[in-house]
From TrEMBL:
<protein>
    <submittedName>
        <fullName>Engulfment and cell motility 1</fullName>
    </submittedName>
</protein>
<dbReference type="GO" id="GO:0017124">
    <property type="term" value="F:SH3 domain binding"/>
</dbReference>
<dbReference type="GO" id="GO:0048870">
    <property type="term" value="P:cell motility"/>
</dbReference>
<dbReference type="InterPro" id="IPR016024">
    <property type="entry name" value="ARM-type_fold"/>
</dbReference>
<dbReference type="InterPro" id="IPR024574">
    <property type="entry name" value="ELMO_ARM"/>
</dbReference>
<dbReference type="Pfam" id="PF16457">
    <property type="entry name" value="PH_12"/>
</dbReference>
<keyword id="KW-0581">Phagocytosis</keyword>
<dbReference type="Pfam" id="PF11841">
    <property type="entry name" value="ELMO_ARM"/>
</dbReference>
<dbReference type="GO" id="GO:0005886">
    <property type="term" value="C:plasma membrane"/>
</dbReference>
<comment type="function">
    <text>Involved in cytoskeletal rearrangements required for phagocytosis of apoptotic cells and cell motility. Acts in association with DOCK1 and CRK. Was initially proposed to be required in complex with DOCK1 to activate Rac Rho small GTPases. May enhance the guanine nucleotide exchange factor (GEF) activity of DOCK1.</text>
</comment>
<dbReference type="GO" id="GO:0007015">
    <property type="term" value="P:actin filament organization"/>
</dbReference>
<dbReference type="InterPro" id="IPR050868">
    <property type="entry name" value="ELMO_domain-containing"/>
</dbReference>
<dbReference type="InterPro" id="IPR001849">
    <property type="entry name" value="PH_domain"/>
</dbReference>
<dbReference type="InterPro" id="IPR011993">
    <property type="entry name" value="PH-like_dom_sf"/>
</dbReference>
<dbReference type="GO" id="GO:0005737">
    <property type="term" value="C:cytoplasm"/>
</dbReference>
<dbReference type="GO" id="GO:0006909">
    <property type="term" value="P:phagocytosis"/>
</dbReference>
<keyword id="KW-0053">Apoptosis</keyword>
Length: 727
């Protein structure tokens, strides 16, 4: 007979004594269990003690998390969080350097536990640490030369404890003084050689900027891009990641009118070239966090184009009209004409109208009207002028080529440029906030200071080439744009390392090649629509759905590693969740790092019976998506969020690593609850498997028995006389 569900068998340690084997009744108050343990070792004042996990986490056990205790767990009897916090609060103020150092080391370790953190913060511990940073370090200025290693360790542990305590979100970032910010900013320069201090200082600056507008302004005054750049030129990728994260935070929180100014400073300091040389082209792999920060920087850089993208052209603005005149001048090299007589004015107007038609504008009389649509607004005109000035020969060739064709076969440069700019903005998501989960940066955009304009120049030449290959007419304009978009998207998925490599990829993706790819994909996804086939599909669909359901449940049994999102994304915290083989319990628990392969059930401390699950909610309906904060408003995070709701208002919140895992888990959980699997992945799998099954059943296999096992290999013949030697 299995033991009662409320009884957990554990071992409990106490320094200097043999561990005790004990059965814990989860229905009893935790204080009563602790008293029972203390009585067994004749310890008085049981309220001064607590239980904690004896693993590397050392987290305290509370009434909230006691259900995480599992059979066979090893626990430790220790001082209560309140007592421990009080003792450490006193110890870190010790006059002995050695005692102070040891106390700060312990504090840095204990601060990861939210129970201890709450108690220490209640003692005004955060204020004590900030005072130590502001003034306490000055007390030891004279000792630095003598005891530099000790001082460095002390400061490192102080900053680590501060970061861990703030990471719990208990205290607002708005409470810190200018003196504290100045001190942290000074460490970025002063302790460049001390990796741990530099890491913590950069992490604190990033969190300040992201979590408080007032602190952003103060940090922006104290830290300059010039002070951050040298840290990118080192070899430590973690320091480089923290540095780019601070730059991104300053970029993201800067007021709209300051962002372009900041971008100009970054260009002056050659940030792009430094990142390209020391990060992207360095002789080491780029980890996920660095990839994310590069992606964020890429998005923020392209978002500077949003203002021009959303600006309509003013037909009365002479400076803007001069840009169109310049496009015409470069293309046709018109000589200056007399403008005194009314006849010459009429002649000039007629000639301009003819030239604007050749340039491919929709409005031949007043082409400024073509740029009143947003997006792409003035950004399209900027791109056209850049192409005309920096790639003059291809520009002139395209315009003259098309002006010499029949009207219906002309590829209109003006209209094409406007639509292409709009398409490129959609592909690169110009104007959207960066995703918290995306690592999709493109190295080629870090190889040129005007990467978007160069991207446009390559793509407009591609568009003209594809137009000719398709022998398109004006009626085919939208079809050509669809093909060009497919060519660009397919080339981008290969992650070319330079713009030249991107151009080379596009050369291989001609219209003929796109047709071959489409034909191949069509054959693979062929869908028969005749009535008998539809009836056969309807008959075998339940069998296929059951197969998909089993695959989803098998994937849940394997489990998935999820990342806990917090304000300091680099310092990832992971947790793992998997379904038991009998499909009755979800096992989950925290991990120190991302696992390699599966995580065994016995290493996951928490469990949730499937029978207790009330509902599965997604997106905005998730409890963790209803919280305030910029992170929670992110569109991509919303699309990957789902939650399990169980009895007593309990909830288990998830952010899937990608869309595929999101579909796997939502499908699997819905299957466990007896609901339909409604994800896009299920629809795709169903179509693929149904089509494969239909094709197999339609093969001409009448009266042919398919064996279950492969046929045996025949015996070797007794002689080879039947072999004819051709020689």
């Amino acid at each position: 007979m299995p033991p009662p569900a409320d009884i957990v068998k554990v071992a409990i340690e106490w320094p200097g004594a043999f561990p005790k084997l004990m059965e814990i009744d989860q229905k009893k108050p935790l204080s009563a269990i602790i008293k029972e343990v203390c009585d067994g070792w004749s310890l008085v004042n049981h309220e001064y003690y607590a239980l904690q996990h004896a693993d590397s986490s050392n987290f305290y056990i509370t009434e909230k998390n006691r259900n995480e205790i599992k059979n066979g767990a090893i626990l430790r009897l220790t001082t209560s969080p309140a007592q421990n916090a009080q003792q450490l609060h006193e110890r870190i103020q010790s006059s002995s350097m050695d005692a102070k150092l040891e106390a700060l080391k312990d504090l840095a370790s204990y601060s990861r536990d939210v129970t201890f953190a709450q108690e220490f913060i209640n003692l005004d511990g955060i204020s004590l640490l900030t005072q130590m940073v502001e003034s306490g370090t000055e007390r030891y200025q004279k000792l630095q030369k003598i005891m530099k290693p000790c001082f460095g360790d002390m400061l490192s542990f102080t900053l680590t404890a501060f970061v861990e305590l703030m990471d719990h979100g208990i205290v607002s970032w708005d409470t810190f003084s200018v003196a504290f910010i100045k001190k942290i900013a000074s460490y970025v320069n002063k302790f460049a050689a001390d990796i741990s201090i530099l890491q913590r200082s950069l992490a604190i600056l990033e969190s300040m900027v992201l979590n408080s507008h007032e602190l952003y302004q103060k940090v922006a005054q104290e830290i300059t891009i010039g002070q951050l750049i040298p840290h990118l030129q080192g070899t430590d990728q973690e320091i480089q990641t923290y540095t780019i994260a601070v730059i991104n935070a300053l970029f993201l929180k800067a007021p709209d009118d300051k962002r372009q100014e900041m971008a100009n400073i970054l260009a002056q300091k050659q940030l792009r070239a430094i990142i390209l040389t020391n990060v992207i082209r360095a002789q080491r792999a780029i980890n996920n966090e660095m990839a994310h920060q590069l992606y964020v920087l890429q998005v923020l850089t392209f978002n500077l184009l949003e203002d021009r993208m959303m600006t309509k052209m003013d037909p009365q603005d002479q400076a803007q009209r001069d840009i169109i005149f310049e496009l015409r001048r470069i293309a046709f090299d018109a000589e200056s004409e007399p403008n005194n007589s009314s006849g010459s004015i009429e002649k000039r107007k007629s000639m301009y109208t003819r030239d604007y038609k050749k340039l491919g504008f929709i409005n031949h009389v007043n082409p400024a009207m073509d740029f009143t649509q947003t997006p792409p607004g003035m950004l399209a005109l900027d791109n056209m002028l850049y192409f005309a000035k920096h790639h003059q020969d291809p520009y002139i060739r395209i315009v003259l080529e098309n002006s010499s064709r029949e009207d219906k076969h002309e590829c209109p440069f003006g209209r094409s440029s406007i639509e292409l700019t709009k398409m490129l903005c959609e592909i690169l998501k110009v104007g959207e906030l960066p995703s918290e989960t995306c690592n999709d940066f493109h190295p080629m955009f870090f190889t040129h200071d005007r990467s978007f304009e160069e991207f446009f120049c390559i793509c407009i030449q591609l568009l003209n080439k594809t137009w000719k290959e398709m022998r398109a007419t004006s009626e085919d304009f939208n079809k050509v744009m669809q093909v060009v978009k497919e060519q660009i998207m397919r080339a981008l998925t290969t992650k070319p390392s330079s713009l030249d490599q991107f151009k080379s990829k596009l050369q291989n993706l001609s219209y003929t090649e796109i047709l071959k790819i489409r034909q191949s994909e069509r054959m693979n996804q062929e869908d028969f629509q005749s009535r008998p086939i539809l009836e056969l599909k309807e008959k075998i669909q339940p069998e296929i759905l059951e197969l998909i359901k089993q695959q989803r449940l098998n994937r849940l049994v394997e489990g998935t590693c999820f990342r806990k999102l917090n304000s300091r994304r680099r310092q990832d915290k992971f947790w793992y969740c998997r379904l038991s083989p009998n499909h009755k319990v979800l096992h989950y628990g925290d991990l120190e790092e991302s696992p390699q392969g599966e995580v065994p059930h016995d290493s996951l401390q928490d469990k949730l019976p499937v029978a207790d699950i009330k509902a599965v909610v997604t997106g905005k309906d998730c409890p963790h998506m209803k919280e305030k904060g910029a992170l929670k408003q992110n569109k991509e995070v919303l699309e990957l969020a789902f939650s399990i709701l169980y009895d007593s208002n309990g909830q288990l919140n998830f952010i899937a690593p990608d869309k595929h895992e999101y579909c796997i888990w939502t499908d699997g959980l819905n299957a466990l609850l007896g609901k339909d699997m409604m994800s896009d992945l299920t629809r795709n799998d169903l179509d693929t498997l149904l089509n494969m099954e239909i094709k197999l059943r339609l093969l001409d296999l009448e009266n042919i028995q398919i064996p279950d096992a492969p046929p045996p290999i025949p015996k070797e013949p007794s002689n080879y006389d039947f072999v004819y030697d051709c020689n």
